Amino acid sequence: MLFSRLSFMLVCIAWTLPAQVMPLASRHIVSGVVFDSIARTPLSGAVVQAALIDSARAPRVDSALPRVFWAVTDSVGRYRMADLPAGRFMIGFQHQALSAVGLESPVNSFVLAADTNVALDLAIPSGAIVRARVCTPSPDGTVRDGALAGFLLDAQHGATLPDATVTISWAELGIARKRVTSVPHNIVATVSDAGAYLACNITSDGPVTIAVSRPGYRKIEGELTIPPGSVGRLDIRLSDTSVVRGTAALAGVVNDDEGLNIATGIVAIPAIGLQAPIENSHFSLTGVPVGTWSLETRAIGYEPRLTLVEIAERANPTLHVAIEKKVQTLEAMNVVGKPGRDMKILTQVQERMRTAHGTAILAGNAYLDDAIQTTDAIRGAVGFLVQSPTKVLGRLDGKNGSRCARVAVYLDGDRLPVGPMGLEMANNMLPVKQVLAVEAYPDMTTAPFVWQTHDACAVVAIWSKR
Length: 466
Known about the structure:
Blueprint: H1 5-16, E1 28-36, E2 41-42, E3 47-55, E4 68-72, E5 78-84, E6 87-94, H2 96-100, E7 107-112, E8 118-119, E9 122-124, H3 127-134, E10 146-154, E11 165-176, E12 179-188, E13 190-191, E14 196-202, E15 208-213, E16 220-224, E17 231-233, E18 236-238, E19 248-256, E20 264-269, E21 274-279, E22 282-288, E23 291-298, E24 305-311, E25 319-323, H4 341-355, E26 359-362, H5 366-369, E27 385-388, E28 391-393, E29 407-411, E30 414-416, H6 420-429, E31 435-441, E32 458-464
Parallel strand pairs: 1-8, 1-9, 10-17, 10-18, 19-25, 29-32
Antiparallel strand pairs: 1-2, 1-5, 3-4, 3-6, 6-7, 10-14, 11-12, 11-15, 13-14, 15-16, 19-22, 20-21, 20-23, 23-24, 26-31, 27-28, 29-30, 31-32
């Protein structure tokens, strides 16, 4: 690693400049932290190099004095170089995190005078800056501000895998034939000869699915979320298809999206037929091979989830998995003759449940059947907290850190006042026995596009029978 392009550049700078007169007694210290602004963590194992390019003048010359100095950062990103002479230096660092996103080493300068030491921190640029440097605009002109980069490696031997395939996929709401619908998107990442991959123009509005495959290796697939306007970093270690069991272990905790424990369920690595039960929210898998694996989590009443997990030989941290309650959907309906108004409404509710992410509460639902007032039925909606018929809270509101109280209320498509007033009007205008359906979306990211407004942070839509 020492003789990389950075090393070659700094050595050339140091040795091509004319030698200056140098004081033997003047020795200084340069120290600091190397920080990964993309991962927002100190960078361990970075090689920091400083080249003397202009020495201080003194009565004698020491031609044997080194002109390039180096150090390696520790586990918390700190480095320290001692016994540097006075003069002007160029400093940079190298790490595979730079190579993964296609960047050269950032180079800075500093000066050591007769009586100075220097504290100098170094950093990989922020994700937004990196994305602007390495990504080009989307071919369709759509602005998507996420990117993902990393290395593809053999889990057992560490060799790079330049001929692996990395596919990123997600769905976005779009308009097709004057209807709001879910539009699928797929991006195949560029993989370099060194096994580094880069995918640009990825959505950061929600989770995306990454699938990685290569002939002779186990395919992996899982969900992740790209930080808005940034570059996600994910190194992937694929295991050979001959690998079935290993010596590593993985323990974890499974909760629902409200933070409640999952009593029973199953976690599994389907690729190698390995599974373990969830007991009082905890699980433990043994005999896991090292590498990156797709972990599937299942529990009755919840959506199954695929999570990418990185398994090391020892000391794997406790994994925390959150799964969401299964969205209630309507069964497919065959309509004979001309459908009535109620059937049209139910069909539209069904279509929205397929493209958005809320709860549909229909006739036969226990919460609706037991409701005293119409808004009592919202107790059956995922992500909501009903404190009273007129005090309904959605998920946490990112603007103030508390649960969302600004619930937009619609009755038969007409907008009512936001919050308690709208809920009270709905209760007064529509008796429970006249409720056909209730749609509830606990935050604006889960609501249908047509109901996403800036003056509310959750949506409840109530439909009456006719």
